[in-house]
Amino acid sequence: KIADQVGDYFLAGGRLVPYKKFDLLVxxxxxxxxxxxxxxxxxxxKKLKKMAKSNIEFLGFISDNEKAxxxxxxxxxxxxxxxxxxxxxxxxxxxxxxxxxYPVGGVTETVIHGETGVFFKEQTWESIFDTVIHFNxxxxxxxxxxxxxxxxxxxxxxxxxxxxxxxxxxxFKKGWNQCELPIK
Length: 184
Description:
By secondary structure, this protein is α/β, with parallel strands linked by helices. It has one domain (9-156): Glycogen Phosphorylase B (Rossmann fold, 3-Layer(aba) Sandwich). The chain has eight helices and six strands. The strands form two sheets. A three-stranded parallel β-sheet has the order 1-2-3, with helices on both faces. α1 links the parallel β1 (9-13) and β2. The longest helix has 24 residues, at 154-177. The chain is elongated, with a radius of gyration of 21 Å.
């Protein structure tokens, strides 16, 4: 759902492991002073908590309902890692909220820079810092962001798969009809 009012925090989440680069978010937000909420658990939790200042809150495991509520009110969802797809940015956009991400992997196919989110240039805390600072001066169209996210929903996926199978079947039939079978 799209919230009536946006909260005063940024959000990130997932398994707290090194390749997800949550340490970069902690370093950037320690300097920014903005509120950051991080959901999820993992082996990096203790290290990240030790690094973080009081403006950063670790939520641990949260339910899907809690996640949806947080996403609908966040200023933006942060995605510093490289993922083949990355479902959480799509979930955030389904709530009408923009994404701030590193433009490698699946987010390059799901996030539209300047329309449904923004990309930071380098996978460094400094680049995240600069991007978040500039992000604050943009207006975001929650309805447009949510409409974009619907492209990645189950119904569209089913329709795309159905159409693909039908197209391939038609190609197969055309090819089969053109085959010359040896007659003995």
